[in-house]
Specification:
The complex is a heterotrimer of chains A (about 300), B (about 290) and C (about 375).
Chain A lengths: L10 H5 L2 H30 L18 H8 L1 H32 L6 H13 L2 H12 L5 H7 L12 H29 L3 H9 L4 H29 L3 H6 L11 H11 L3 H33 L1
Helix pairs in contact in A: 3-13, 4-8, 4-10, 5-8, 8-10, 10-13, 12-13
Chain B lengths: L12 H25 L3 H4 L13 H7 E3 L6 E3 L2 H32 L5 H13 L2 H15 L5 H26 L2 H9 L4 H12 L1 H16 L3 H6 L7 H7 L9 H21 L1 H8 L7
Antiparallel strand pairs in B: 1-2
Helix pairs in contact in B: 1-13, 3-13, 4-7, 4-10, 5-7, 7-10, 8-9, 10-14
Chain C lengths: L2 E10 L2 E11 L4 E5 L6 H9 L6 E6 L2 E2 L5 H4 L2 E3 L11 H6 L9 H14 L15 H13 L6 E4 L7 H17 L4 E5 L2 H7 L2 E6 L2 E6 L1 H6 L4 H6 L6 E11 L2 E6 L4 E5 L12 E6 L4 E4 L6 E11 L3 E7 L4 E7 L9 E6 L5 E4 L9
Parallel strand pairs in C: 3-8, 3-9, 6-7, 7-8
Antiparallel strand pairs in C: 1-2, 1-4, 4-5, 9-10, 11-12, 11-14, 12-13, 14-20, 15-19, 16-17, 16-19, 17-18
Classes of the chains: A mainly alpha (about 300), B mainly alpha (about 290), C alpha+beta (about 375).
C-alpha cells in the first residue's frame, strides 16, 4: 500500500496537495522576508549607484561606482573601520574568555544552579539603551561607582571616557559584560552534551584534570567556540546603540564605529547614496564572515560524529 | 557513614556559595540599576555613590503618573501605553514569525525542494545583515507607504527579523520527529492538516516555546528601527527610555532605572521558566542537524 | 586479589536499587551479574568501580576497604556499555591513555599497545579514530583499553549488548580466551543469559536489587534455587505449571494439575515433607518433555497449537486446555498442528516449587 492515496478533506487538501504543498507553506515567510528585507536591500543597492540625497528633491543622477570610490578613498572611513576592528576584537576576546570560564563554572550541577544562572543571564536581557545610560553613569568621574571604587586606590578622580583609549575600554567593557553570557550559553550547551561516561572512563583511567580537559572537553567545544567568535564578531560589527549612548562617537570621533558613522552619514548629513555604498561594503564583509560561520557549523556536524 | 567524595559532574553547597559570589559580582551593575530605581533624585546622584539609603517608590509612580506643571494635579503618562506597545508589538511579531516560520519550516523539513539548502542559506543571511544596510530604504519605504508610525509597519518588520531564526530552529525540531508516526496517521485516513496539527505540533511544543522566548528577547530590546519607525502612538519602551535622556534637567536616573526594572520583569520571568529550552536555541539546533 | 561486597546497598531517594548484596569474587574468577533491566546489576558494578557511592555496606578490593575511595584511587579497569572511547584520539592513543598515570617509558607503552592490539586483532586500525570504526572494532578497542593495565580487577558493563548476533558469537569466544589469561577477578554485567552461561565461572542472578542465586552456570541451569531463576535461565523458558500435591511416597509423587489431569512423576525425596493438598508449581524444561504414543502416568494429554521449526530442533506449543506448554524435540519427530498427543515428563527432571517460590530439593 504505497503512500500515493489522495488524502481526504476539502480545501485543506487542495492547499496541501503534494505538488503545491511545499511552495505554498513557504510563501508567507518568503513574502514577508522579501518585502521587508530583500526588496529594501535591492533598493539600497540600486541607490548606491546614484547620488540620491534624502533631503533634496532633485532627481538623482546615475553615478556608477562613483559613490563606492568616494567611500573607499575616504580616510575617515578607514579610520572608522579601524576603530570598529579594535572594538570588535577586544570585545569578542573578552567575551570568549569570560564566557568560557563561566561555562566551565556552570557545567556542574549544584544546588540553586538555576537561580544563580539567571543572575548571570540578566545582562543579556537589558536593552542596549539602559546599559548605555547606566554604564555611562558608572564611568562618570564624580557620580559613578567605578571612580568611587578606584578612589580607594588612587587619589584622583577617574575619568574613563575622556581619552580615546578609555572611551574604547568603556565601550568594550559594557559590550563584553552584556554578551559574555551568550558565549557562556553556547559553550555550556556543548559542555552538557558531552556524555558523562567519557568522564567516567577518564576517571577510571586516572587521567589528570588537564588531560581530561584536553582530550574530552576541548574537542567538543572547539567548534562551538569558533561559532561564538564568528557570531559575536558579526553582531559586534553592527554595534550602534551602546556606542551612540555612552560616547556618541567621542571624544571627537575616536569611538565612532562604522555603524554610528553610517547613521550619521545617512541621517545627519543626508548623504543617502554614499551611505548606501558604504553599507554595501559592510554587507560584503559580513557575508564573507557569514560564509565562514556556516562553514564552521558544517564542520561541527562531522566532528561530533 | 559519611562518604567524602561526590559523583562526577555534581557539586555541593560550597560550590554554590562560590558561584553565587561570582554571579553576584557579575550581576552587580543590574543590582545597582534596580537599587537606583528606589532612590530619590539626590540619592541617585549622591557623591560618593550610596549603597544604603531610604528607599522610595516615587520613581515607580512617576513612571505612570507625572505631576503636571500647569494644573498641579498628576496626570497619567503614556508609559503605560508604551509598555503595552512593547508587549503588543513584540508579542505579535514573534508570534507571527512563529506561525509563518513553522509552516515554512515544515515545508523545508518534510518536502525538500531541490534548492533547499540555498533557500535556507539565503534566509539565514537576511538575519546576518547589519540593520544599517536596510535602514535607509526601509525608512523611505515606510514614509512613502504611510506605514511609518503604525503598528502594522513595525510588526511586519519585526516579523521579518524573527523569521530566519524561527525557520532554522523549528526546522531542526521537525527534522527530529519520526516520520513513521505521521505516515501511520495518514494510512489511517487522517487529513494532512490533522497530521500536522494533531501530531507534529504537539510534539514540538516545547521547541516552539523556546523559539518564542528567544525571539522575544531579541525583539523586546530592539531600539534602532523602533526609534525611526514608530510614532507617538506606537512608541516602544526602549525608545521612550531614550527620550527621557534628552531632558532639560539632565537624566533622571531614578526614573529611568524604574522603567528599566519594570521592563526587565516580563522578560526575566519568561526566561526563567524556559531556561533549559534556551540552551537548545542558542546553538541554532546545530548540535544535531 | 579478590573482590568482596558486604551488605552493599544503594538507594536513590526512596528507590532501593541494590539491596544488601553480599558477594565474593575470587582471584582470577569471572563472575557474571545477570538479570533483567532494572535489577541493580549495573549499579552494583559501578559501586565496585567507585563511580557510585554505596548508601550502606562496604566494598573490599584485595582485602582493602575501598568504600570511601574515588574511582581513580581504586585502580580498577572498566569497559563501558557505550565503549566510552575518546573521540579525538586514535585507537592507539585510546589504548595508551590509561598508561599515562603509571609512569612507563614510551617504549614500554608502545610494547604493551602492540601486544594488546595483536591479541585483539587491532593492528590494522591503530591509526583510525573511533568515529571511523565499526561496532565490533569499537568494542574490541574498549576491551583492549581496559585490559592494557594491571589493575586490581576488571569490570565489564554489557560488553556485547551492542553487537549483532553473529559478532556476538565471535566475540564471546574471543573474550573468554582473553579473560582466561587475566589473573584478576572479573565482573561482567549482562542481561543476556547466553553470554553469562558461556563466559562466567559463576553467575549471580539478580532481581530487584537482590541476588537470587550465585552458582556455576551448570547449577544455575540444572539446580535453580527458586521460581525466578528457573524461569529466567534457559531458552525456551521452563514450563511452570500450578498443581496440587495429592500423594507422595518417597521416590515419586502424584499431582493434580489445575484443569483436571493428574500426573505421577519421580521427584526429589524432600517432597515427602509436604502434606497432600499443598499447592506447588511444577517446573519442567521444554527439552525434558517427550511425545509418547500412548498415555502414561508420568504424562498428560495435550493438543499441539503451533509448530515452530528451528532447524535441528522443533519447538512445539502445546495446550492442555488450561496451560500452555513448550516442548522442544528433534526435528525428525513428526508434529502437526491440531494433533492430540501425550506429553511425557522425563523422569527426574521436574523441579517442584512451593508457594513461597523456593525449590524443594535435597541440597
Amino acid at each position: 500500500m504505497a503512500n500515493t492515496e489522495k488524502t481526504r478533506g476539502g480545501f485543506g487538501a487542495w492547499l496541501l496537495d503534494p505538488k503545491r504543498r511545499g511552495a505554498l507553506l513557504v510563501t508567507p515567510a518568503i513574502t514577508i522576508l522579501f518585502v521587508m528585507n530583500i526588496f529594501p536591500l535591492m533598493w539600497s543597492f540600486g541607490l548606491s549607484f546614484f547620488n540620491y540625497k534624502a533631503s533634496s528633491l532633485k532627481v538623482p543622477k546615475f553615478k556608477g561606482f562613483n559613490n563606492y570610490e568616494k567611500v573607499l578613498t575616504d580616510e575617515k572611513v578607514w579610520e572608522r573601520f579601524q576603530t570598529t576592528a579594535i572594538i570588535v576584537s577586544s570585545s569578542v576576546i573578552m567575551q570568549l574568555i569570560i564566557g568560557f570560564l563561566m561555562a566551565m563554572l556552570f557545567a556542574k550541577v549544584f544546588p540553586l544552579r538555576r537561580i544563580v544562572l539567571m543572575l548571570v543571564l540578566t545582562p543579556m536581557m537589558l536593552s542596549f539603551v539602559s546599559v548605555g545610560v547606566f554604564f555611562k553613569l558608572f564611568y562618570e568621574p564624580t557620580f559613578g561607582i567605578v571612580s568611587f571604587v578606584l578612589n580607594f586606590f588612587t587619589e584622583e578622580r577617574f575619568v574613563l571616557l575622556g581619552s580615546p583609549e578609555g572611551a574604547i575600554l568603556g565601550i568594550v567593557i559594557a559590550d563584553a559584560w552584556m554578551w559574555s553570557p551568550f558565549v557562556m550559553l553556547l559553550v555550556l550547551a556543548g559542555l552538557v552534551s558531552i556524555p558523562k561516561y567519557l568522564y567516567e572512563a577518564a576517571e577510571i583511567d586516572r587521567a589528570s584534570k588537564w588531560r581530561t580537559f584536553w582530550t574530552i572537553t576541548f574537542p567538543y567545544i572547539k567548534s562551538l567556540l569558533l561559532l561564538a567568535v564568528l557570531f559575536r564578531t558579526i553582531e559586534t560589527f553592527k554595534l550602534f546603540d551602546v556606542v551612540y549612548i555612552i560616547t556618541d562617537g567621542g571624544p571627537g570621533s575616536s569611538t565612532e564605529t562604522i555603524a554610528v558613522f553610517l547613521y550619521r552619514t545617512a541621517f545627519q548629513f543626508f548623504k543617502t547614496s554614499q551611505s548606501s555604498a558604504l553599507a554595501y561594503i559592510v554587507l560584503f564583509i559580513v557575508i564573507v564572515l557569514t560564509n565562514l560561520y556556516l562553514y564552521s557549523v558544517n564542520q561541527r556536524q562531522e566532528e561530533v560524529e | 557513614m559519611a562518604r567524602k567524595h561526590r559523583e562526577i559532574g555534581k557539586a555541593g553547597w560550597g560550590y554554590t556559595a562560590m558561584t553565587s559570589v561570582i554571579g553576584f559580582i557579575y550581576f552587580f551593575p543590574v543590582l545597582w540599576i534596580i537599587l537606583t530605581a528606589f532612590k530619590t533624585r539626590t540619592d541617585a546622584l549622591a557623591v560618593p555613590p550610596k549603597l544604603f539609603f531610604t528607599p522610595t517608590l516615587d520613581n515607580f509612580t512617576s513612571v505612570f503618573y507625572r505631576a503636571s506643571i500647569t494644573t498641579g494635579s498628576s496626570q497619567a503618562t503614556d508609559m503605560g501605553l508604551y509598555f503595552f506597545n512593547s508587549i503588543f508589538i513584540a508579542g505579535t511579531s514573534v508570534g507571527l514569525a512563529l506561525i509563518v516560520g513553522t509552516l515554512a519550516a515544515y515545508a523545508f523539513s518534510r518536502f525538500p525542494l531541490r534548492g533547499n539548502d540555498t533557500y535556507l542559506f539565503i534566509i539565514l543571511t537576511t538575519r546576518m545583515m547589519p540593520p544599517i544596510v536596510v535602514i535607509i530604504p526601509i525608512f523611505l519605504m515606510f514614509r512613502l507607504s504611510g506605514l511609518a508610525g503604525t503598528y502594522w509597519g513595525i510588526i511586519l518588520l519585526y516579523t521579518a527579523f524573527n523569521i530566519p531564526f524561527s525557520v532554522w530552529l523549528i526546522k531542526s525540531f521537525f527534522d527530529e520527529l519520526n516520520p513513521e508516526i505521521e505516515d501511520a496517521a495518514r494510512m489511517d485516513g487522517s487529513t494532512e492538516s490533522r497530521v500536522f496539527f494533531g501530531f507534529c505540533i504537539p510534539q514540538i511544543l516545547a521547541g516552539l516555546s523556546a523559539t518564542f522566548v528567544f525571539g522575544l528577547i531579541l525583539t523586546w530590546n530592539e531600539f534602532l528601527f523602533a526609534l525611526l519607525l514608530t510614532g507617538v502612538e506606537t512608541r516602544t519602551v526602549p525608545v521612550a527610555m531614550a527620550r527621557t535622556l534628552g531632558g532639560e534637567v539632565g537624566v533622571d536616573y531614578g526614573l529611568l532605572a524604574a522603567i528599566v526594572t519594570l521592563f526587565l520583569i516580563p522578560i526575566f520571568f519568561v526566561t526563567f521558566l524556559l531556561q533549559n529550552q534556551l540552551l537548545r536555541g542558542v546553538t541554532f539546533g546545530t548540535v544535531k542537524k | 586479589m579478590t573482590i568482596e561486597l558486604k551488605k552493599l546497598t544503594k538507594r536513590f531517594g526512596t528507590l532501593t536499587a541494590v539491596d544488601s548484596v553480599d558477594l565474593t569474587v575470587g582471584d582470577g574468577e569471572v563472575l557474571c551479574l545477570l538479570g533483567p533491566s532494572g535489577c541493580g546489576k549495573t549499579t552494583t558494578l559501578r559501586m565496585v568501580a567507585g563511580l557510585e557511592l554505596a548508601s550502606e555496606g562496604e566494598v573490599y578490593l584485595g582485602g582493602k576497604n575501598v568504600s570511601d575511595q574515588a574511582a581513580r584511587d581504586r585502580n580498577v579497569a572498566m569497559s563501558f556499555q557505550f565503549y566510552a572511547l575518546y573521540p579525538s584520539l586514535t585507537v592507539a592513543e585510546n589504548l595508551a591513555f590509561p598508561l599515562y598515570g603509571e609512569g612507563l617509558s614510551k617504549t614500554e607503552v608502545d610494547a604493551r599497545v602492540a601486544r594488546i592490539s595483536n591479541t585483539l586483532q587491532l593492528s590494522g586500525i591503530l591509526n583510525r579514530k573511533p568515529g571511523q570504526l565499526a561496532e565490533g572494532e569499537k568494542q574490541r578497542v574498549a576491551v583492549g583499553r581496559s585490559i592494557i593495565r594491571d589493575p586490581t580487577c576488571f569490570l565489564f558493563d554489557e560488553p556485547l549488548s551492542r553487537l549483532d548476533v553473529q559478532l556476538r558469537e565471535e566475540m564471546r569466544g574471543e573474550i573468554k580466551l582473553v579473560l582466561q589469561d587475566l589473573s584478576r577477578p572479573t565482573v561482567i554485567v549482562t542481561h543476556d543469559q547466553l553470554e553469562a552461561l558461556t563466559m562466567a565461572d559463576r553467575i549471580a542472578v539478580m532481581r530487584d536489587g537482590k541476588i537470587e542465586q550465585v552458582d556455576t552456570p551448570h547449577n544455575v541451569f540444572q539446580r535453580p534455587k527458586n521460581l525466578f531463576v528457573a524461569g529466567f535461565i534457559g531458552t525456551p523458558q521452563m514450563n511452570l505449571l500450578p498443581a496440587t500435591l495429592t500423594a507422595s511416597n518417597g521416590a515419586s509423587a502424584e499431582f493434580a494439575i489445575t484443569g483436571g489431569q493428574t500426573i505421577k512423576i519421580e521427584v526429589d525425596p524432600r517432597i515427602s515433607e509436604l502434606s497432600p493438598g499443598t499447592k506447588v508449581t511444577l517446573g519442567v524444561r521444554p527439552r525434558n518433555l517427550e511425545i509418547s504414543n500412548e498415555p502414561t502416568p508420568d504424562g498428560i494429554s495435550s493438543t499441539i497449537d503451533i509448530v515452530e521449526p528451528m532447524g535441528a530442533e522443533t519447538l512445539a506449543h502445546l495446550s492442555d486446555g488450561q496451560h500452555d506448554l513448550r516442548l522442544v524435540t528433534d526435528w525428525r519427530v513428526p508434529l502437526n498442528e491440531g494433533d492430540k498427543v501425550h506429553t511425557r515428563f522425563l523422569p527426574g527432571t521436574t523441579h517442584i516449587f512451593t508457594a513461597d517460590e523456593q525449590v524443594m530439593r535435597t541440597p
